[in-house]
Amino acid sequence: MNLTLKVWRQRGPSDAGHFEAYDAPGITEDMSFLEMLDVVNEQLIHSGREAIAFDHDCREGICGSCGMVINGKPHGPKKLTTTCQLHMRNFRDGDSITVEPWRAAAFPVVKDLVVDRRPFDAIIQAGGWITAPTGGAQDANLTPIPKAVADQAFDAAACIGCGACVAACPNGAAQLFTSAKAAHLNLLPQGQPERWSRVTAMVDRMEEYFGSCTNYGECQQACPKGISIDFIAMMNRDYLKAQFKDRKRLVGASDLAGDGAG
Amino acid sequence: MSSMPGRAGAGPVAPVHQKGPRRFWIQQFYGSALGKKAVMALTGIIGLGFVFMHMAGNLKIYTGENADGVKHIDEYGEWLRTLLEPAVPHTGTLWLLRGILIIAVLLHIHAAITLSMINRRARPTGYKGGRTYGLGGTYVARSMRITGILVAAFIVFHLFDLTWGPANPDFERGQVFHNVTSSLDRWWVAGIYIVGNLALGLHLWHGVWSLFQSLGLNNPRFNTWRRGLAWGFTVLVVGANLTFPIAILSGAV
Ligand code: FES
After folding, report:
1. CB of B238 closer than 8 Å to CB of B198
2. Residue ranges of chain A with per-residue pLDDT less than 70
3. What is the per-residue pLDDT across A11-22, written as a single tens digit (0 to 9) for each?
4. Which end of chain B is more exposed for a tag (fewer CB within 10 A), N or C?
5. Residue B145: closest CA among chain A residues belongs to which residue?
């Protein structure tokens, strides 16, 4: 396959950035999108130009680092597929492909296609953990969990934190990520003691950096792990309930801020 | 602002929404975007109740008049003023309902504006290479601000036309049937009512579905009929409302 790429090049956070066109000849349809970029980068290096910077790690769809917007869609045209798992057979010979980084105030561009996703880490630090001392490994099935609940928690835990939801959202909102991270603990018995402070702290932290949800549902369309906006509704419900749970006002977001994961 | 985990070579990420220190809980709640969305949903429900009752009341245009020759809709207008009398003074209940409605509308608009400002800051640059949305409904949802402004403008016109009268040369206070028919007989007024109601329809279609999500009233058992409810409510209210200008303009009423 011979392709034409239009790739966003940006030297650093303060550079304005621009699109640059590259030829990508000799691409096979079995290559992944990242392998295709590797081929283009080889060419660039051989011709003495700077390679396109992009984040990647596992290349098997589980680490969440390879996010980029391909032809106007986060992670490209194929549903439930990360960029690293997107094969070139999803494109046709002669195609022109536009590649751009995530766009959100919370995800400033570091270089080319690499964005800074630390605000996600900040949300996890605010409440994406439990403080119960785990001690020695307990016997299996000592804490009974209904199968349906375990399945749902697992669906939420499938989030790889890639940021496609934020990239897809016209408001740059992180509701899908935050709700998945909150739900996977809030559904399970181990997450109950901190359920209400968790949701409050995570939502408060999220709102510092991200936009608000207008229920477009675009995040769910873009999510490579198929996480449902039902989790957003659950987070909204928990946040509303949390207003009435903490009668003594012992726990506020500011009390939990930043010292959780430390 | 909270501390940001470190990343080599990266500066701070600027927050888009600064919250003050902890205040009285309701202030703190409304200070959060999720709280504002809940307020939008609740005030939206008040609005839904209003548009439904307004539509249902207007259907009396079609039911004719009572034995004394008073139009049913005029009778109904008078009944609204005397609601819960004598326990409540004349027009007391009506003004209470109006007060709730006005507060709801103002809160709805305030939340919409402040949330829009946060959202604009959260997405300062769009996709330079274009963005393909996955859902057709997104375009309706994205037009909520425009349809909201259109509905608000329509309501203002509607008040000048049929509540206060200056937009209608034939206006007579309390003569609901006369006022409606004389006003909507003008084609451009009928046109404004039709456009205003279509905008209302788009607003309702997203709003009715969306409010369940904002309030967390979500359960896989009934999620599928939330869309159906949004369709049904929208078609019922807007469909009935659209018959009024059409019926009057065509001379059927
Ligand atoms: S590189 Fe790890 S998910 Fe794509």
Report:
1. yes
2. 246-262
3. 999 999 999 999
4. N
5. A214
- Best A152, A187, A206, A208 residue to mutate vs chain B (most B CBs within 10 Å): A208
Distance CA A245, CA A196 (A): 7
* Residue B101 counted as domain residue: yes
- Atom of ligand 1 lying closest to residue A64 CA: 3
| Residue A52, pLDDT score | 98
Residues of the domain holding B87:
32-124+137-250
Number of domains in chain B: 1
pLDDT given at position B33: 95
Is residue A57 classed exposed, middle or buried when 0-12, 13-18 and 19+ CB atoms within 10 A define those classes?
Answer: exposed
Residue B97 in any domain: the answer is yes
Pairing of strands A3-9, A96-100: parallel
The pTM assigned to this predicted structure is 0.92
Q: B176-184 and B72-81 are packed helices; what angle lies between their axes, rounded to 10 degrees?
A: 120
Pick from A76, A53, A57, A73: nearest CA to A65: A57
Bridge partners of A98, per DSSP, are: A6
Supply the pLDDT for residue A257.
45
Query: Is A113 at the interface with chain B, CB within 8 A?
Result: no
Ligand 1 binding residues, C-beta < 6 A: A 56-59, 61-66, 82-84, 160
Domain spans of chain A, in order of start? 3-111, 117-261
* Nearest-angstrom CA–CA distance, B129 and A173: 20
Tell me the nearest-neighbour CA distance from B24 into chain A, angstroms: 11
How far apart CA B225 and CA B231 sit, in angstroms, is: 10
Cα torsion B22, B28, B33, B34: sign: positive
Domain A117-261: which topology? Fumarate Reductase Iron-sulfur Protein; Chain B, domain 2 (1.10.1060)
- Domain membership flag for residue B102: yes
- Cβ-nearest to A119 among B13, B34, B125: B13
Closest ligand 1 atom to residue A84 Cα is: 4
Residue B9 has pLDDT above 80, yes or no: no
- C-alpha closest to that of A118 among A163, A183, A73: A163
Separation between Cα atoms, residue B2 and residue A262, nearest integer Å = 14
**Tell me, what DSSP letter sits at residue A81?**
-
CATH number at residue B192: 1.20.1300
What is the distance in A from the centroid of ligand 1 to the CA of A108? 20
Closest-CA residue to A6 (of A38, A40, A31): A40
Mutate to test the interface with B, among A55, A152, A200, A216 (most CBs of B within 10 A): A216
B135: which 2 tokens? 């859902």
CATH architecture of A3-111: Roll (3.10)
ipTM given for this complex: 0.90
CA–CA distance, A4 with A71 (Å, rounded to integer):
12
**Is B14 within a domain?**
no
